[in-house]
Write a structure and sequence with these properties.
single chain, two-stranded antiparallel ribbon
């Protein structure tokens, strides 16, 4: 049984975030994207984060100089590697220290899904020799150092004509074998996440108490807690030092 104090607190936070999102959805203002992002980061994710994890926005970088697209939410751990911060939350985050990338939308539609996939593919081009690929039973490997997640406060899908996962599958040919996005949550529609073994998607239906959002937050927090038990190794020298000639000096023997 869930602890009612914890659950009720999160339900109230979700209700506030959804209500605030609805009140500003019809307003055409460039700064509102940041407000949607802040609602998810501050009201939903951050209060349930295990110690050591923080939330920022910006780009993810690997040691070879490649950068991701602008990312709405990056869940990172500074104990692995420091980030370069340009404000309290905006920065560039090392791949080894980044665990989740969350794309936040006011409304889910085909354009939003395609945009998230495109950004995700660019992020998946980053690499690190210190992060071991995930081995699958058939002998293939999947290198997913960051879990790519899509979150939307609303959807343009009406009725039961199509699910969010079915729409996603239309835009990602590898949706069942090696999908770009690993978790999808749309308020009022449900929460889907991908399992590598067996290769399948699991669906958590929506509820009047926003269990689809609660389950997403729980999944993120649980995954981060497990990752902390076997925290990654990051070497800042890989980001700072260039290849150049060095000299060996020995004393007279």
């Amino acid at each position: 049984m869930p602890q009612s104090i914890f659950r009720d607190r999160l339900i109230n936070s979700v209700r506030y975030a959804v209500s605030e999102a609805k009140s500003i959805q019809g307003v055409d203002h460039a700064g509102l994207r940041g407000r949607f992002r802040e609602l998810v980061a501050s009201n939903l994710l951050m209060p349930m984060m295990p110690e050591g994890y923080s939330i920022g926005t910006g780009k993810i970088s690997d040691q070879f100089g490649s950068l991701s697209s602008e990312t709405d939410i990056v869940v990172y751990n500074a104990s692995v590697l420091p980030s370069i911060m340009y404000s309290e939350k905006d920065g560039v985050f090392p791949l080894e220290a980044s665990f989740y990338s969350v794309e936040v939308k006011s409304k889910s539609d085909s354009t939003a899904i395609k945009d998230a996939i495109e950004k995700g593919r660019r992020l998946l081009q980053l690499s690190s020799p210190l992060i071991k690929p995930l081995a699958t039973p058939n002998g293939t490997t999947i290198n997913y150092p960051v879990i790519l997640t899509f979150f939307a406060f609303d959807s343009d899908l009406a009725g039961d004509c199509k699910t969010e996962l079915e729409r996603y599958a239309e835009h990602d040919p590898q949706w069942l074998t090696n999908p770009v996005l690993r978790a999808i949550c749309v308020v009022g529609k449900g929460y889907w996440y991908y399992c590598v073994e067996p290769r399948e998607w699991r669906f958590h239906p929506p509820s009047n108490e926003y269990d689809e959002v609660i389950d997403l937050v729980s999944g993120v927090s649980n995954t981060l807690a497990k990752a902390r038990l076997a925290i990654r190794i990051g070497l800042i020298g890989h980001y700072l030092m260039i290849e150049r000639q060095i000299y060996i000096i020995r004393g007279n023997t």
